[in-house]
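Before anything else, study the sequence and fold tokens given here and see whether the fold suits the sequence. Record follows:
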Amino acid sequence: MSASIPLVLAWGTLVGLDLVTVSQTMIARPLVAGSVAGVILGDPLSGGIVGTVLELFALDMLPVGASEYPDYGLGAVAGAATVAGAPDVLGIGIAILVALSIAALGGVSMQVVRRLNAADVRTHETAIDRGDPRTVAAVQYRGVARDAARACLVTAIGLLVAAVARLPLFTLGSAVLMTVVAVGASLAAALSGGLRLSGGGLELRWFVVGLLAGTAWIALA
């Protein structure tokens, strides 16, 4: 795993930037972030599983404006690093616990970056108001650099937490129990988010149809 750390740090930085600051090409979605991290670490299946569970949690999130929300993409990267190569020992539940913790830390770090960006804008308010292109560009570049540093730092912390979580700290029974709780909580979050976003009327009926069709497909598979 140590040989892959620079690549994971680079991937986590891109994931963190993609969430708000740059590109927004959806690589910050937990399913993508976790799956690619799993590929980098040589265990795409476990990374995909962690990303899928985190994606269910993310379905209950509505990132509008300056609302506060966890950074589930960085959480998925940390979760993939936790379980990569040792799913039978650790269990998905422990990886999800790490992922949710890092996602929460990522959400807090975004607020810190936003406050720093706002302070930077206030400091150069006069030049920005008169439309000085150099000042505007400099403020924007510094904002990107802050978010890149944030994403890299949170990813590094996630890798450290993952390394600790990979130690034999949990029994097999507790790992299985955590997996059941994590998956159940993610399904509940996804259901809650789906109901809230679908509202009523035709959208709600289509949501119910999709839910029943998905349940039938799983049962018959």
